[in-house]
Amino acid sequence: MGIILNPIDTVDNISKEDFISNYLKPRKPLVIRKNTESWPALQKWTFEYLKETVGDIVVPLYDSSKADPSKPINASAAEMKFGDYIDLIQKEPTDLRIFLFDPIKFAPGLLDDYRSPTDLMGGFLDKYPNMFFGGAGSVTFLHYDIDLAHIFHTHFNGRKRVILFDNKWSERLYCIPFATYALEDYDIENPDFNKFPALDGVEGQ
User: Fold this and answer.
1) What value does the mean pLDDT of the chain take?
2) Mean pLDDT of 12-33
3) Alpha-carbon dihedral sign for residues 162, 44, 47, 55
4) Same-domain check for residues 112 and 183
5) Other residues' Cβ atoms within 10 Å of the Cβ of residue 34
6) For residue 89, what are the CA distances in angstroms to 48, 80, 92, 168?
7) C-alpha 177: how far from its chain's center?
8) Of the ranges 14-18, 20-24, 65-69, 104-108, which one carries the lowest mean pLDDT score?
């Protein structure tokens, strides 16, 4: 049987009523293709523009190492200037990635380049957006966000694969008790069902 991945609904646009009743309340993921068409960031935020704007900022980098209980949570593996990291991921594959980088802290003018989708829902922390960057080969371990927030994830460049699971599958995904992540001894894209039989038949998107 294996892990069953069902398609995610995709729309160009959606009304507030439809979004809230059919996706937000039932906690169902949705891809909204044209939600960012009015954003200046869609055209402005190229790698070169971001390098010019925040390229000298030193950022922590994270790799694909398993979580280490002896180290602080989310401890970084290295540090690098943001501009140098952008050069790195354009040049070669790397498992190093940038996690929760807030460029607004260093360049408040970037706030003018995007619009929170307040036409769909409220409650946005407009002054605290976060950006994630990863090169070819970078992977984030299976986890849930500790604040259990609703996320409007906007993708700007390259390709990224996201796999989502409802919380009802957490035990069969070997979620570690009192932790925000699952056991990291299996590859979610190619699991060994003999070693991890509970994964067989789990449904995601």
Assistant:
1) 88
2) 95
3) negative
4) no
5) 10
6) 13, 12, 6, 36
7) 22
8) 65-69
The CATH number for 39's domain is 2.60.120.650
Written as six digits, the tokens of 128 are 């605290």
Instruction: Please indicate, yes or no, if residue 146 is contained in any of the structural domains.
Output: no
Domain shared by 61 and 107, yes or no: yes
Asked if 60 and 12 sit in the same domain, the reply is no
Do both 136 and 64 map to the same domain?
A: yes
So what's the pLDDT on residue 76? 82
- The DSSP code for 3 is -
Pull the structure tokens for residue 150: 């609703």
Question: What is the predicted pLDDT for the residue at 64?
Answer: 80
For the segment 91-113, the average pLDDT, to the nearest whole number, is 90
pTM: 0.84
Question: What range does the domain containing 78 cover?
Answer: 35-141
Match 């994964």 to its residue by tokens: 199
Asked if 50 and 135 sit in the same domain, the reply is: yes
Domains held by the chain: number: 2
Long-range Cβ contact pairs of 186-193 (< 8 A, separation 24 or more): 188/3, 188/142, 188/163, 189/163, 191/3, 193/2
Rounded distance between C-alpha atoms, residue 174 and residue 197, angstroms: 10
Q: Are residues 20 and 118 in the same domain?
A: no
Judge contact between 169 and 198, C-beta under 8 A.
no
State how far the alpha carbon of 50 is from the alpha carbons of 62, 96, 104, 110, 122, in Å: 20, 18, 11, 10, 28
CA-based torsion, 192, 195, 197, 202: positive or negative: negative
